Amino acid sequence: MNQLSYGNLRERAMALGLLSLMRSFALLALLIVLAVGMAIAGPAPALALAEAEAGAGSGAQHYLCDGESLLAEIHNGAVDAIDIPNSSAGTVPGAFVVLQWRGISLQLPRSNNAGEPSYTDGRWWWSSPAPDQIEFEQLRGTVHSYSCQRISG
Question: Of 54, 77, 123, 141, which one is least surrounded by beta carbons within 10 A?
Answer without folding.
Answer: 141
